């Protein structure tokens, strides 16, 4: 097998395409031939030694992937060789093969391509957990999605629409805003040219959004929170802009609003039954055509450094997927 090996997390330039022995799955594990692996922002942070989870060295980055089971270890009964699966294993995806915990593998139904499978779990699970569980989104409410053209943002648009909400999508260019319109956003804001707070006020008849979905942080956080409706819920999803904002605590007091943390990975660990039910619902929605990953482009696995460069440039719309 071959894999992009990180011996020292000093950046993308330190990764090397390396031939390694093909591993054998142990108890509770599966060996999977990888067909597709998507890029997520934590993948970039991990090879830069900037992520909160620091895997033992050396490691193969690539949190999310899809492929075909080649062999199963002792005790694995729900998966079989030849079966298509998707997995969020945290590492190992930027390779031709990987051994992963069988419990983390999601069987893909017929008609679920590997490219979509590799771009599915992290973004849709995060957005569903955020909107439906943490925010208790109701039909008829208004959702403001920041960073709406990214992976989690585009998933949030689709999930909010599937739940019957009105969606205001905010993104950093007209091209990205147009993509948001195409996947269902009711209104868009190009915050590179528009004042976010004034635009939200105009698009919500002065009421503000009931829910703010924020995977961006940085300078957008405070104007977004100042725009929120009475009893609004502000979802802290991530900090793609870099800086972690500090919100004045008088704002939630004055708005009767809630600041709600979203940590899907911990939810999945602590509440596995609820997480499994959620993933089942998401797979059903995919089959019904209600949600579908937005794929920016596919690139050969050999072009991982170029893929990382495109991600770092903030030009990706939806998910970028590497294929073997």
TrEMBL record:
InterPro entries: ADH-like_C, ADH-like_N, ER, GroES-like_sf, NAD(P)-bd_dom_sf, Quin_OxRdtase/zeta-crystal_CS, Zn-ADH-like_protein. The lineage of its organism: Bacteria, Pseudomonadati, Pseudomonadota, Betaproteobacteria, Burkholderiales. GO terms for molecular function: oxidoreductase activity; zinc ion binding. Transmembrane segments: none annotated. It comes from Melaminivora suipulveris. Residues 11-322 form the Enoyl reductase (ER) domain. This is NADPH:quinone oxidoreductase. CDD domains: QOR1.
């Amino acid at each position: 097998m071959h894999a992009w090996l990180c011996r020292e997390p000093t950046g993308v330039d330190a990764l090397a395409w390396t031939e390694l022995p093909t591993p054998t799955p142990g108890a509770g594990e599966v060996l999977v031939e990888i067909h597709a692996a998507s890029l997520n922002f934590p993948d970039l942070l991990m090879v830069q030694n900037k992520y909160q989870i620091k895997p033992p060295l050396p490691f193969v980055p690539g949190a999310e992937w899809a492929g075909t089971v080649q062999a199963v270890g002792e005790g694995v009964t729900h998966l079989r060789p030849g079966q298509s699966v998707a997995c969020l294993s945290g590492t190992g995806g930027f390779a031709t093969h990987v051994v992963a915990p069988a419990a983390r593998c999601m069987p893909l139904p017929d008609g679920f391509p590997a490219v979509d499978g590799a771009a599915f779990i992290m973004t849709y699970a995060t957005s569903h957990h955020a909107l439906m569980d943490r925010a208790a989104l109701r039909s008829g409410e208004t959702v403001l999605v920041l960073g709406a053209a990214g992976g989690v943002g585009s998933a949030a648009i689709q999930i909010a629409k599937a739940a019957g909400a009105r969606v205001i999508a905010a993104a950093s260019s007209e091209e990205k805003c147009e993509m948001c319109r195409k996947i269902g956003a009711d209104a868009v804001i190009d915050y590179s040219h528009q004042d976010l707070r004034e635009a939200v006020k105009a698009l919500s008849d002065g009421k503000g959004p009931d829910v703010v979905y924020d995977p961006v942080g940085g300078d957008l956080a405070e104007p977004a929170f100042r725009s929120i409706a009475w009893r609004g819920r502000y979802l802290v999803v991530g900090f793609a802009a870099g800086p972690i904002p500090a919100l004045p605590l008088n704002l939630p007091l004055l708005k009767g609003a809630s600041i709600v943390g979203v940590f899907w990975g911990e939810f999945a660990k602590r509440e596995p039954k609820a997480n499994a039910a959620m993933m089942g619902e998401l797979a059903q929605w995919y089959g019904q055509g209600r949600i579908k990953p937005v794929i920016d482009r596919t690139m050969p696995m050999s072009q991982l450094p170029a893929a990382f460069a495109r991600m770092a440039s903030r030009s990706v719309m939806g998910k970028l997927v590497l294929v073997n």
